[in-house]
Amino acid sequence: MSGRGKFVTLEGVDGSGKSTHSGYVEALLQRAGHRVLRTREPGGTPLAEALRQVVLESPMDGVCEALLMFAARADHVRQMIRPALEAGTWVVCDRFTDATMAYQGGGKGVPAALIRDLANATHGDLWPDLTLLFDCPFEVASARLASTGKTMDRFEREGRAFFERVRSAYLDAAAAASARIRVIDASKTLDEVKKSIEENVSMF
Predict the structure, then answer these.
(1) Comparing C-alpha atoms, which of 20, 192, 29, 19 is closest to residue 8?
(2) For domain 7-203, which architecture applies?
(3) Whole-prediction pTM value?
(4) pLDDT tens digits, the chain, 204 residues: what are they?
């Protein structure tokens, strides 16, 4: 396989089901004949995974969160994402900079200009070729989180107001970049969501 690989990201509020579907996206791409690397953010490398634990467990303000997210992202991009893409591998990543714009920007009020500057310094012109945005109402997301029975991290424990700010930021991003960001109604049944994923991936 020759040529650069494609970069596919999955985004959405906690409880939207995006992480559940990352393996399905990987399988669809593999079926189409692509070599695929599946990863996540924050995370993907030993350093980034360590920073992930700090971010998810330690209370901090939005600017501190954004700085740690981009520190993890810088290592992830340099160690894994860029080398894979350059080798012709397709990368499927659970969250990327759109998440920082939504959570730290929309949710915590970190200035968009600061996030853009950090993004430029961290990954420059590297942006996803396709982003699947899993969208659902607060009631659906919160019910799903509660049904897992696992201990929720501090983002998952946030209330409705935070959720709505994050969701709104995601939908604004989708409206501004509709060619890249495809919105999937994650409140539908599993089969319906999978069908929507297939349609969007096949068009790509």
Answers:
(1) 29
(2) 3-Layer(aba) Sandwich (3.40)
(3) 0.94
(4) 458 999 999 999 998 988 889 999 999 999 999 999 999 999 999 999 999 999 999 999 999 999 999 999 999 999 999 999 999 999 999 999 999 999 999 999 999 999 999 999 999 999 999 999 999 999 998 888 888 777 778 888 888 999 999 999 999 999 999 999 999 999 999 999 999 999 999 877
> If DSSP states are collapsed to H, E and C, what string results for the chain?
CCCCCCEEEEEECCCCCHHHHHHHHHHHHHHCCCCEEEEECCCCCHHHHHHHHHHHHCCCCHHHHHHHHHHHHHHHHHHHHHHHHHCCCEEEEECCHHHHHHHHHHHCCCCHHHHHHHHHHHHCCCCCCEEEEEECCHHHHHHHHHHHCCCCCCCCCCCHHHHHHHHHHHHHHHHHCCCCEEEEECCCCHHHHHHHHHHHHHHC
